[in-house]
From TrEMBL:
Annotated Aspartic peptidase DDI1-type domain residues: 87-186
Family designation: Belongs to the DDI1 family.
Keyword Ribonucleoprotein: no
Protease found in the keyword field: yes
Gene: LOC111085632
Gene3D superfamilies xrefs: Acid Proteases
Database matches in PANTHER family: ASPARTYL PROTEASE DDI-RELATED, AT13091P
Record organism: Limulus polyphemus (Atlantic horseshoe crab)
The protein's name: Protein DDI1 homolog
Record InterPro entries: Peptidase_aspartic_DDI1-type, Peptidase_aspartic_dom_sf
Keyword annotations of the record: Aspartyl protease, Hydrolase, Protease
Length: 222
């Protein structure tokens, strides 16, 4: 065997070794490569360092880094991520829709629906505190109406609401309502359960239904 053949054999052996090393690449290296790819595609300004992850110094946490980028990526494929939870209900026998808003301290009803129910003469002065919790804006309250027959599925109860300007949906369930009814907001199966674990389950509207509701409201305003 001459020197040229020996050199060729050594080169082939080196190539086989490189292929074996590549196929046995560590999971940390693969995750780091995937995370780098996510960073290039990311359109938001979310900083993954807030999770306390340093992909250089702490490679064991690279998966968490990649997960954070995916979770907060603007182009999310989760259909309901940007759709607010809205449910169908009845108020004094009239079909309506209610927004579940855990940022609202009190539940409200729009003046338009109050007029539709012919309850304007039953509006009483509101004594609710005007303080703004957590610095969140609060709609101007025009008064309060009591003794509204509220129906959610098979669940019925007499309720009261603060009256606000026109809103879509026309009813908002705030923290006061959710606490009194022991309601459970389940984002996993898109539903609201009234009356605890064994209570009445009311499904959220689908994305299509929420879009149609918004369009109908906008058309009626124009």
């Amino acid at each position: 065997m001459d020197d040229e053949d020996a050199l060729d054999i050594r080169q082939r052996a080196l190539r086989r070794k490189e292929r074996r090393l590549y196929s046995c690449a560590s999971i940390e290296q693969l995750l780091e490569t995937e995370a780098s790819s996510f960073r290039k595609r990311r359109s938001s300004s979310f900083d993954t360092q807030c999770f306390g992850v340093d992909p250089v110094k702490d490679r064991d946490k690279t998966f968490l880094n990649a997960m954070a980028i995916t979770l907060f990526e603007d182009e999310s494929r989760l259909g309901r991520m940007h759709v607010q939870p809205v449910i169908k209900c009845e108020c004094n026998g009239v079909e309506s829709y209610a927004l579940i808003n855990t940022a609202a301290t009190v539940s409200s009803i729009s003046m338009k629906l109050v007029e539709k129910l012919r309850l304007t003469d039953q509006i009483i002065p509101d004594t609710t505190s005007k303080s703004i919790a957590l610095g969140l804006p609060h709609p101007e309250v025009k008064g309060k109406v009591k003794y509204l027959d509220l129906t959610l599925g098979n669940w019925q109860q007499v309720s009261q609401f603060c009256v606000v300007e026109d809103a879509v949906p026309e009813i908002t369930f705030g923290v006061d309502f959710l606490r009194k009814t022991q309601a459970i907001v389940n984002l996993e199966d898109s539903s609201l359960t009234i009356g605890g674990q064994q209570g009445e389950r009311v499904p959220f509207l689908t994305t299509r239904e929420v879009i149609m509701l918004t369009r109908t409201a906008n058309d009626s305003r124009s």
